[in-house]
Amino acid sequence: MTGSTDALIAWRRKELDASEQQIELFGAKGVKAVLILPDGVQQDITDRVLEHQREYASRLPELIVALDGSAR
């Protein structure tokens, strides 16, 4: 493996860990994501954050495997 491929794989693994932590925080633990607009209006965006993180996390393992295999 090249150094740059190793670094990319390590970065993607960290991204996967971070996504899984976000899913846990906003899902099981009940933490809410709130967007505060410039006019002071607040919007609960928890469901959208969870949807995004789940989608992102579902794709990362496949990418990591592809990167790992491409370096051989």
Provide an overview of this structure.
- The protein contains two helices and two strands; from the N terminus they run αββα.
- The model has no long low-confidence stretch (mean pLDDT 89).
- β1 and β2 form a beta hairpin.
- A two-stranded antiparallel sheet has the order 1-2.
- The longest helix is centred in the last third of the chain and has 25 residues, at 46-70.
- α1 packs antiparallel against α2 (46-70).
- It has one domain.
- It is mainly alpha-helical.
List the keywords.
mainly alpha, elongated, two-stranded antiparallel sheet, 72 residues
Q: What can be said about the biggest beta sheet?
A: 2 strands, antiparallel
Number of helices: 2
Low-confidence stretches: none
Strand order of the largest sheet: 1-2
Shape, principal axes of CA atoms:
elongated
- How many structural domains in the coordinates? 1
Order of helices and strands: HEEH
Distance between the termini: 6 Å
Q: Count the strands?
A: 2
Mean of residue pLDDT values: 89
Helicity level, as a percent range?
A: 55-70%
Radius of gyration: 16 Å
Strand content: 5-15%
- Helix/strand-derived category reads mainly alpha
